[in-house]
Design a protein that fits this description.
By secondary structure, this protein is an alpha/beta fold. It has helices at 2-52, 61-72, 133-140, 153-169, 171-176, 206-217, 233-242, 262-269, 277-280, 301-309, 330-334, 377-387, 415-436; strands at 76-77, 83-90, 119-125, 144-150, 177-184, 248-251, 256-258, 282-285, 288-291, 313-315, 344-348, 358-361, 391-395, 400-403.
């Protein structure tokens, strides 16, 4: 009788194993279903997120409409009829920046000033140097007027688009920068329609825009405009300066940086100064330097002195034309007592071929627009200031820094020929000043 008991025992064990297997199958089935639902939920979330995302372009439609309207005017021709000018394609906001811009570094709140009493920085460039606007704004923290030159139809299209995306995606640019465009008279600027596949589709932030501009700049070279184009630097300076709309203007090149706090310190210096003929005939010279490496561009004079002592900085154009900056008297300026308050340190007489950078009233004579490309474009204007009776006063602790040492090998092949052509034009210009200022006993 023991055999039936053993069979019964094995039957119980087998039934238990089958029950466990069945439960495992049920568990696995339930687990699989749960996993499937989780996966479907995750995919559903992903799709719903994509559907809920805003459009790829966060473009400002109102700004786009205003820009189209400005372009529709066709601009105006310059006095020579060679260039078409679009003034205030994008106009800066009336208040100063009080917020952080993406990728622009910290911004301190600046109290808005009446435009007529402000100091505006006026600058000019082609697309290859426009990426420097980022550092310029972070250092200047005030209104900037930019004249942008586009030599050909494709450059005009690209420049128009970049002006728009800068003003749309970069808060500091939108608040502080007024853009003006110059091109050849045969070119018309129109707003390029955005397409999903266009090169601008990926631009979603201020960093993206300046990254694209920096990449563009590596493919181009200063003053190398091609066979049928000349860089009208003095025309651009006049365009940027005239559009500033302020009492004081500082005109510099796009690849330069001012010392920190220059704008507000200067406004404190001239605060309350009446608008007399004598005051309007003062130009405030800002010494300019070059720096070897651009990783550490000084903001204060004490830091500049340290870099100067170890050979990392030198006077602007020291290698190429030391006489062009010599009257500034860098030795005297470097040995002035350091201090926080901006003051007039000393006066200097103009000497040929001095071409200082300076702050002036907006009423100073225009740059002569016949000077293009390389040579005598700023010398001629400083020469006229001298003949017209302006006085030059050097301020103590403000300065400009050009990014990189200027050396002869960095220039384009036609530089010497352009310089000779403008030298002949300068002789003619000086003769014309005798007629323009017949009562002046000053010559240059």
């Amino acid at each position: 009788m023991p055999l039936p008991r053993k069979c019964s025992f094995f039957k119980v064990v087998l039934a238990a194993l089958l029950l466990v297997a069945l439960l495992q199958l049920i568990y696995l089935s339930l687990l699989s279903g749960l996993h499937g639902r989780q996966q479907r939920f995750r995919f559903l979330e992903l799709f719903e997120t994509r559907k809920a995302e805003p459009p790829r372009h966060h473009w400002d439609q109102e700004k786009k409409s205003r820009l189209k309207l400005s372009l529709a005017s066709g601009g105006i021709l310059d006095s020579s009829g060679q260039y078409r000018l679009y003034k205030d394609l994008v106009k800066a906001g009336e208040e100063a920046v009080i917020e952080d811009g993406p990728g622009m570094g910290p911004w301190a709140a600046v109290a808005p000033l009446p435009p007529k009493e402000d100091l505006v920085l006026a600058t000019h460039t082609t697309l290859n140097n426009l990426h420097n606007l980022r550092d310029l704004l972070a250092r200047w923290r005030g209104p900037v007027s930019v004249a942008l030159f586009a030599p050909g139809p494709e450059e005009v299209r690209f420049a128009t688009m970049m002006i728009y995306v800068l003003a749309t995606l970069c808060a500091p640019v939108r608040e502080l920068v007024s853009f003006h465009l110059a091109c050849h008279s045969g070119n018309l600027a129109i707003f390029p329609e955005l397409e999903e596949s266009s090169e601008f589709a990926r631009l979603k932030s201020c960093n993206d825009v300046f990254g694209k501009l920096a990449d563009t700049g590596t493919k181009l070279r200063n003053y190398d405009m091609g066979a049928n184009a000349s860089y009208p630097n003095n025309l651009l300076r006049n365009l940027a300066r005239a559009a500033a709309g302020s009492r004081y203007v500082l005109v510099i090149d796009m690849d330069m940086l001012p010392s920190e706090g220059l704008r507000l310190s200067f406004l404190s210096l001239v605060a309350g100064q009446p608008s007399t003929p004598e005051a309007e005939h003062i130009v405030y010279v800002v010494p300019a330097f070059e720096i070897r490496h651009t990783r550490r561009i000084p903001g204060a004079k004490a830091e500049l002195l340290q870099l100067y002592q170890v050979g990392e900085m030198r006077p602007f154009y020291e290698e190429l034309c030391p006489r062009c900056q010599a009257p500034t008297n860098y030795s005297r300026w470097l040995n002035l007592p350091t201090g926080n308050e901006m003051q007039v340190a000393y006066g200097v007489e103009w000497k040929d071929p001095w071409e200082p950078f300076y702050i002036s009233s907006s009423s100073v004579p225009h740059y002569d627009e016949r000077f293009k490309q390389y040579g005598f474009n700023r010398i001629s204007q400083a020469c006229e200031l001298h003949v017209a009776g302006y006085t030059f006063q050097v301020i103590n602790n403000a300065f400009l820094v050009h990014k990189g040492f200027k050396v002869s090998g960095d220039f384009h092949a036609k530089k010497d020929a352009e310089n000779q052509h403008n030298k002949v034009l300068f002789r003619q210009f000086k003769q014309e000043l005798k007629t323009k200022y017949p009562s002046s006993g000053l010559r240059c």
